[in-house]
Amino acid sequence: MPQTLAPVIAQIGSIILGKEHQIRLTLACLLAKGHLLIEDLPGVGKTTLSHALAKTLGLDFQRIQFTSDLLPADILGVAVFDRDSSTFKFHPGPIFAQVILADEVNRATPKAQSALLEAMEEHQVTTEGETRPLPDPFFVIATQNPSHQVGTFPLPESQLDRFLMRIHLGYPNASAERALLEGRERRDMIGDLIPALEPQELIALQKQVRSIHTAPALLDYVQALLAYTRRASDFVTGLSPRAGLYLVNAARAWAFMDGRREVIPEDLQAVLPSVVGHRLQPVNGFASLSGMDFTQRLLEEVAIP
Amino acid sequence: MPATDTLDPRRLAALIASVALVMAPHAARVPLWTTLFCALMLAARFLIGWRRRPLPSKTVLILLAAAAIAGVALSYRTLFGRDSGVVLLLALASLKLLEMRRIRDVNVVIILCYFLTITNFFYTQTIPTALYSIGVVWMITATLVSLQHATPVGRLRSIATTSGVLLLQAIPVMLLLFLLFPRVQGPLWGLPQIQHSARTGLSDSMSPGTITQLSLSDEIAFRVQFESTPSNVQQLYWRGPVMWDFDGRTWRTSQPVRLSVWRYESLAPPINYTVTLEPHDDRWLFLIDLPASLPPDSFLTRDYQVLSARPIRERRRYDAQSVISYRVGEETLRGELQQALVLPDGVAMRARALARQWQAESADAQEVIQRALHHFGTQAFVYTLEPPPLENDPVDQFLFETRAGFCEHYASSFAVLMRAAGIPTRIVTGYLGGEINPVDGFLIVRQSEAHAWTEVWIDNQGWVRVDPTAAVSPLRIQQGITSAVPETDPQPLIRRTRIEWIRQMRHAWDAVTNSWNQWVLGYTPEQQSRFLNSFGLPRIGWEEMVVSLIAGTGLVLLGFGLTMLMRARRRQLDPVQRSWTRFVDLMARRGLVRRPAEGPVDFTDRAIARFPELEQKLRTIAALYIRLRYGERSEARDLENLNLEIKKLA
User: Fold this and answer.
1) Which residue among B151, B158, B631 sits closest to A262, beta carbon to beta carbon?
2) Looking at this predicted complex, what is its ipTM?
3) Which of A305, B192, B248, B280 allows an S-S link to B201, with CB 3.0 to 4.6 Å?
4) What distances in angstroms separate CA B204 from CA B110, B281, B305, B407, B579, one per listed residue?
């Protein structure tokens, strides 16, 4: 692992206990310039994770609580008439921050959801005919309650596709939970964190990730994986070319975090469940195969060329 | 012990459908309870799988199996033999479905399916059966494919294709087995044929109505292939049962006496032909009158019937030679001529009177015969398939009252007239005519071509054939049965039809069935050795056949194996991968097998955990391989080093 990244993981790991793999995935997602969707029950540490990440990387952090009456202007900002200058003055919304936690994104109406997702995709906000760039780095962590809860608007597939990864945090194991119960208030601990990385350093790291080598043999493997999902009949559609691209980017970040200059099959395998899990829709009536089960099968069945 | 299902509903449905298809043809043959039992078990199994309920316990299964066995014992009074064995197999196979707990059980069910497919051939070996079985085997194989590739649920079409390819690959082996497997003479499968009752055909007796009945049947009696087809196939008399004894109504054959040497004077060149006789459960072999050389395993009787040594229970093919124009009867005994004059007391008195009158007015036997034929030709006799019923004295009633009859009426009354006039006469039954199939040139003789005629003894000429039907209805002799009887008479639809395409279809189908019979079902030891001889192979025994069978199959499999190997090789010509494969093989020999989806780091990690002493070498190898295969650039030395390290490991 590059020298600069080890303390980052260690520091976040001291706040979120026993979830090193998820922390690494989050970081890989950030390094690959993607956005992250965390799908889990309330209270397992989604907010804490995002907050700790922002603080450790020295990025400014905004949390947007999504509710059913949230309007796009509440996210993007609003132009208010300024009597002194007799002009409209733009008051930027919470989206103008480097790390956004979009909490319970599936509680809001599709209109509010798409405002966020378009900003994520285009990396800029257009209001009142004026386009304003979003800060860099820009990282959205959206959380989502399991979609079978009451009063939710599940994200459609096209929106899910904009998230590079979807992860689950899950309950901590017994010892981690004991440490959590015994330890200090997490909010206070986050307040005490010192940034381990400068924003400029992070941008440099993101650039380096782009240059990680992917050999033809590795791309063969990627294509074999994609072809397999398209051939199987359990799913509505196979993986899109964009999914393939995202998969390679995520694997690059993973390889980079592992201190390598080239991607090897293990990198792909490590990020694959998080990258493709939310992009595969089981055919109706055979819900027994969820996306996650299928990724395990992908990993076991597709031989490395 | 409840167990969760090993199969998802879709695969289960496919498997149950295969089993149902395999069992379906048996439904018509087994007792009703078997069909219900199997259907119930399949339905129950499907519901259990669908609802994800536990499978029934061992006790329930044992009780069900006991019930099935008891059912078989009650229905057949035995558990052995073909029918009870098949029923038992069906019942237990459907029970096995309820015992399907692990993938191993599923495989057992599939193998049972293949076997059950074969049992279908115990009963019928026709082309539709064969086609159906191929379809079923395809389906079973597809199910097997979908089970074995348990994880990737490929599309239906790709599974069907794989299954089809597997079947196609089996064709060379199938052909080899068919051609070279040592044949035994006898029924297919060596099983005793059980249903030899109620087959249509000529019999050893003839009374008014026998042949009329027969002529309504469209069934094929035999097929003939001529060395060179004679021009007058419609007028060939196929000799069958010869009848001497008359009781006033019914003619019967007498005890057959073997004639080892017979002499005849041939008036025309003989004709050679091959007959494929359908089974008729009696011993007659039908040959053109007069047989000149006999098929093997048969003999000639004193009245020139050809009898087989055993009843014809399977389709039989034989070569024969006949002369169609002849003079015969030199060896006839006085006693036989006496027998050919006997008439029962008190019947046909008017006919006898008429015959005696003719006898008195005629100079010789020839003239009596001419008078009788003239009588039939001029006295408003009708040739019909629907003659009015005859009661007490059939001969007189027919001759003087109804005057409408079929060939047996004419032959019978003519014979009575002749015997009354002192001319020895006997009845010959057989077939007359037939139809050449334009598709393959075979002559098809059906039961509807059954015919009866007479033979009279004339001094200095011997036995002479006289066909009284010809006097009444010359058309029957010249053009066949269809045009000879009134259009309103009931005849099998297919024979009466004038629609051209139906006729052509029938001919085509018959030609296909015939070649199936000739080449597939009729592939006897003689056919086999003839076929092998045609390749210049000498007559070989069964030992050589088995050896060449094994060698041939081995060669075919070797061919497939090499092709596959070549393909696999071509896929990995990359030298780096070859080295890596060598390394993986090396580790496999040490007991550590790489999973197909295991990357180099994972694999070496596992190897290091297993062989900690090799850690240094293993890490070097993994690093070199990763650099060579996945790295941005590598040096030429890397590959050498990799090979060197691997060699050191070996």
Assistant:
1) B631
2) 0.85
3) B280
4) 50, 12, 12, 16, 83
